[in-house]
Amino acid sequence: MSTFIEQLVNGLTVGSFYALVALGYSMVYGVMKLINFAHGDLFALGAYLGYSLLTGATGRITASMGLWGGMAFTAFLVALSVALAGVLVERIAYRPVYPSGRLSLVVSALGMAIFIQNAVMAIWGSRPRAFPASVVPSLRFSLFGIPVTLLQVTILGISFALMLAIWLVVEKSSFGAAVRAAALDRETATLLGIDVRKVIFFVFALGPGLGGVAGLMNGLYYRAISFNMGWNYGLKAFTATILGGIGNIPGAMLGGLILGVVESLLAGYVSGAWKDVFVFILLIAILIFRPRGLLGEKTAEKV
Amino acid sequence: MNISSGILRRILQAPGDPGKGGDTRGRRIIGIVAAAFFMFFPLLPFVDNYWIDVGFYVGIYALLGLSLNIVLGEVGLFDLGHTAFYAIGAYVTAILNTRFQIPILFLLPVSAVAAGLFAWLVTAPVIHLKGDYLCIVTIGIGEIVRLSMINNPLGLTGGPNGINGIDNPRFFVPILSSRQFYYLLWAIIGISAFFLTRLQRSRVGRAWNYIREDETAAKALGVNVRHYKLSAFVLGAALAGVAGNIYASKQMSISPESFTFMESSLLFCIVLLGGLGSIPGTVLGALVVTVFPELFRPFAKYRLMFFGLALLMMMIFKPAGILPRLRDSGDRLRKTLEGKKTRKSHPESGSAQTSAGLPESAQANGKPLLRLEDLDLSFGGVTAVSGMELEVAKGGITALIGPNGAGKTTVFNIITGIYKPMNGRVLLRGEDISSKLPHQIAKAGVARTFQNIRIFPSLTCLENVLCGQHSRGRAGLAASMLRVPGQRDEESRMLKKAQACLARVGLSDSADSLAAALPYGKRRYLEIARALAAEPELIVLDEPSSGLNDAETTELSVLLKSLVEEGLSVFLIEHDMNLVDMVSDHVVVMQSGKKIAEGPMCEMRRNPKVIEAYLGGEED
Questions:
Q1: Domain B368-615 carries which CATH code?
Q2: Domain segments of chain A: what residues?
Q3: Residues 6+ away with beta carbon under 8 Å from B555
């Protein structure tokens, strides 16, 4: 039972990374009908930026702002820079190619992914880097009888706060309504006076911003980061997106958490080596039996 | 210098002119030059083994590119896990060779069959998925295969280190040197390209292209979409399996590292870089993708970064690829069929006539040709059609009218099998066709056009119309590749028929133009010609006059009447009441998914229910 609880908490933590990255995929797909293949690498970029800030500058930041203030400031900086990178990706790789159709978009997205991944490698090197140990004090304690670490609680707390904020923005604000409208039917949304360019800017800033924070937290959690980690996380997060229903915001969060938990339980009880194989079989099974995902809505083919 | 740049310009610019198929002569010259280059490259004085090996890897990517081109280029299926099939070929070769000492070249067909079979097994359950969804599944398949190889199931794959000690092939003499490998591989590429070119100019290749251009139109005109998608995957995978076999024997060892997602995305880029569906383009794409990083080797750290940027730039400035596929003109197609010896094919007296292959007898024997019984269909609680019934008489024009949203197009979609009704039956000549698939219904004699024109934009008009003939032919993969006599006869019959149908609607002059270049009104006629080419008994037209001016509409009414005179039955949805008045024998009025009245048009104009349907109730 205690392994089960441990795997569950671990799964939720990993799942919250997936959920944050999945949000980016889902929002971009909703509005652009495009799989942003560079998104996973933006996640990796977030991890590396966090690494540099923590090893380089944060000594000073934490000294002047305290541990938590310093961490929050680091996270803010990472989110801001990766959001900027996301907006640049859209400007450079997608906007000019949009009129040429889906296939060209896939290639330019792949090209961008290759570029970012190799730029990260060129800057930080091809060997894995290690986050400084115990940035967050390695405290273990029991929460309602469940053994957790302070780091896990921090990560889960930040992730859920971010997800709640996004959910409120997208579901409750009028700008969120514009985003949902653009996702439903871009043309009609334009006709109704919604500035779709603003919506696109929003999803390409927010999605990668969240992904960047997830990258930072992932680095804190596992400590080792490598330049090509983005691809694997990206694919998992995309699986989570499909699981929840592509284009559906609460679906992406749910999908990420479920995937993280399923994966941890598979690793704990079945086989660590085969868990990724199971995840991809799960992905294919969802697409065969419930392509709209858990929360997605069914749409009729228009002829 | 001047000459070559002139040729180059012609080659690169030809496709920029959307009207015509393009400059094939310039292409042929460059093709011969390129073939000569590949043939003599290893013999050039300054080329050492290192560069011959680079040439070999260009070949591996060319072969893989050609194999992916079948799936992605010809059929337009986003396959981002193609490396899986390559891996299966390589591993089958490695395992069988190292364990049972089976000779490599004997394993070549075995690898092809294994990879093809694997492709069939894994894609058959998912082939119905659209666009991005299929793309994700193929990524998943690629990862599953790679991870399985790492996990060393049953000790077969050797885990992360892979398999060592694979033999060299033996073709009379052992093939050992870089040069021998180079020639073996490029000979295989030459043979593959030869057969693939034949496929492109056949019923099979065109069917693939129809699916890529517009899947719905393709199936409504008789293409068995599922069958052709699967056949593309199987053939593409088999070719990738061949590449895996040669790769394994050249390397003498393989490991999962060679079969990553990065490889799959590289292949994807090769096909798009060269030009979708273009065989010479794919080879050129492979050349660029392999040699580019070699040239930037001094900047090792940055070369893939540059490569990513280059891909981006390419898609921004030349999204159609370097050497886009040129479509064949009608003359070219005919010449291919005639071959070197001008075969005297006796034009069969029947098909040489201009008539668009109409049923022999048009006697109105009282029985309705088409009968709908009690049809129900709703989408997520919204009722589109309920309790709908109607009859279409043989040899006449029946019109279906009604206000927007009445469910008229839904009725058409049910008739043609695009939607399945929840209840009720569709009887064609008394036979229930409601459970048949669209391509079977087309074959049974119902051809249609679409409300929002669905032509195949990047194919020529002639190729568009040939789609109609698809269901009247039989030639499959093998017959088309070997070009057996029966296939040639069938092709020339289809060609004649298609030309007759184009002439019928007055589009003979545009036969070799791309359909995308046609003005709007002509596109409607192209759709009608395509439907006529299916040799239907019933032609179903969804708002044929929409977007036409008055003169064009009058022309249309003349065409429709003459079709009926030749024995065809017409069923149309129309909003232009003048046209309905001019041509229709019988009118059915629909509202809110139900039939509310029927009879001759003059009666319908006076029918209070019909007036209310169009003008709205007074109580409202």
A1: 3.40.50.300
A2: 2-289
A3: none
What fold, for A2-289? ABC transporter involved in vitamin B12 uptake, BtuC (1.10.3470)
Which residues in chain A are closer than 8 Å to B418, comparing Cβ atoms? 301, 303
Mean pLDDT, all residues of chain A: 87
Fold observed for domain B27-32+49-326: ABC transporter involved in vitamin B12 uptake, BtuC (1.10.3470)
Strand partners, B170: B174
Residues of chain B with Cβ-Cβ distance to A111 below 8 Å are 269, 307-312, 314-315
pTM to 2 decimal places? 0.89
Locus of tokens 């040489």: B352
Token duo for residue A129: 């880097």
Token pair of A218 as six digits: 């992932």
Task: Report the amino acid identity of residue B45.
Answer: P
Contact list, A300 vs chain B (CB under 8 Å):
379-380
User: Are the Cβ atoms of B413 and A303 closer than 8 angstroms?
Assistant: yes
* Owner of token pair 């088309």: B480
Question: Is beta strand B170-171 parallel, antiparallel or unpaired with respect to B173-174?
Answer: antiparallel
A255-282 pLDDT, tens per residue?
999 999 999 998 888 877 888 899 899 8
Identify how many contiguous H helices and E strands chain B contains and give both numbers. 25, 12
CB distance B426 to B389 below 8 Å: no
Q: Is the CB of A110 less than 8 angstroms away from the CB of B315?
A: no
Rounded to two decimals, the ipTM of the complex is: 0.88
Quote the distance between the C-alpha of residue A52 and its chain's center.
20
B454: how many CB neighbours lie within 10 A of its CB?
22
Question: Which amino acid belongs to residue A17?
Answer: F
